[in-house]
Amino acid sequence: MSGISRRKFLTCTLVGAGATALSLKTTDAFASAKLEGYPDSMGVLVDLGRCVGCRSCEAACNREQHLPAPAQSFDDPSVFDQTFHNGQKRRTDEQAYTVVNRYEPTATDQPVYRKSQCNHCNEPACLTSCFVNAYTKTSEGAVIYNPNICVGCRNCMIACPFNMPAYSYSSATNPVIKKCIFCYDTRLKNGLPPACVEICPQQVMTFGHRKELIEIAHERIKARPDRYIDHLYGENEVGGTSWMYLAPAPFEEVGFDTTMNNEPIISNVKDFLGTVPMVLAIWPALFTGFHLLATRKHDIEQHGDDHSAHKEEEKKS
Amino acid sequence: MKIKIIIPVIIATFVFVAGLSPLMAATTPPAQVRIDQLSKDFEPVEFDHASHVDMVGDCGECHHHTTGTASNDPDCMRCHNSGATGERVACRDCHAPDPFSADHLKTTSEDRKRYHRDLLGLKGAYHRSCTGCHEASGGPTGCLDCHLRTEAGDALFRAGKYTPAPTDKAAGH
Lengths: 317, 173
Fold this sequence. Notes:
By secondary structure, chain A is α+β, with helices and mostly antiparallel strands. Chain A has eight helices and nine strands. Chain A is elongated, with a radius of gyration of 29 Å. Chain A starts with 5 loop residues before the first helix and ends with a helix. Chains A and B meet through helix 2, strand 8 and helix 6 of A and helix 5 and helix 6 of B.
């Protein structure tokens, strides 16, 4: 490439270096933006060893959220024997934002009951996946959504690592997402605990500031190491959740996914998604520049010819 | 809103000692305790304190602080080994009826050096104290064994006359 002039080479190098620097800077910015959650986020510590499976929490949720009547009474323990496809236990749906299931782990004599509902992640995957921005993570810690914005695409159902969002399949005209909202509208934003926490006779759930709950949980493990698995589920899983769990038996035996990464789900995609705006913004300019440089010689030659022609004309006159 | 919380607490004071002086209250165990914190959904429970005193004998079986005997919990005795008599004997004196109210959370958050930070609320303390012993001694453990539901409670649990009509859906989809 003897045709490249010194000036052209320098310009190309500068442009290339600039683009590289920009892309590196973008990646760094994303890497350092790891959220620790809102500083004053509230949370709930669930101590599974205390639960006796009375299902009062399900009843309280039903009343608080004005959900439709269930198929069976809330004091009917036969629901614990129900299994669905592939032996799955009951799950949250449009009529129940929280469900209690019974497990019989080998480590304990007594059955262990586990309440499930939205865990209100610090960096919610549902929020990330929602292309109409229906979801909000409030400073109180709740992950809420606006059903008027929801278009019913169900991306969040796929994105949620805990399989919590449900869908109003019963609505033919306007199906939307349905899930636990931490009783945000009626309670949390007024400084009150959610209905399930308040009704629980055994105080399975402790409501408070998430940071303090983490301390309390570790103190409980330390005080009674024989009673707890030495792990606070939700402290770090998928970047941390507002609802956290202590268990008397291995978590995988009481319905928890223990293969969860401590990185938020968004970390899987944010490096890639971070490059999209860069590509869109820089590449057109960069390649236009390359094109202009590559065709410059031709332009100069043409322009040069014109110029010399002009000079010749001048000479003639 | 506060009155709603306070009234049950006041009513829950020992019925027996209602007419007696506070000094007497500290030393005389009540014969009966009316527990009606859940009065919206459940009828009040008339707890027969006297018969439990006869049955158990040792106050320290249920109370951390008593008017005479020391606590049975060796962990408590690590610090509280000097005196057995406590001024606060009733459950509600330490176990708050509203453990998750904004005021209560603020108090516990600010009191960082407090040792008993992870304290059960009154309802949790009652249930966990009662059911643990009842399970071990064969006492009643079902919800309705102690609590009669009000109509609002039946509506809440969708039980009694609010029981849903059986459908095919009950068996799952």
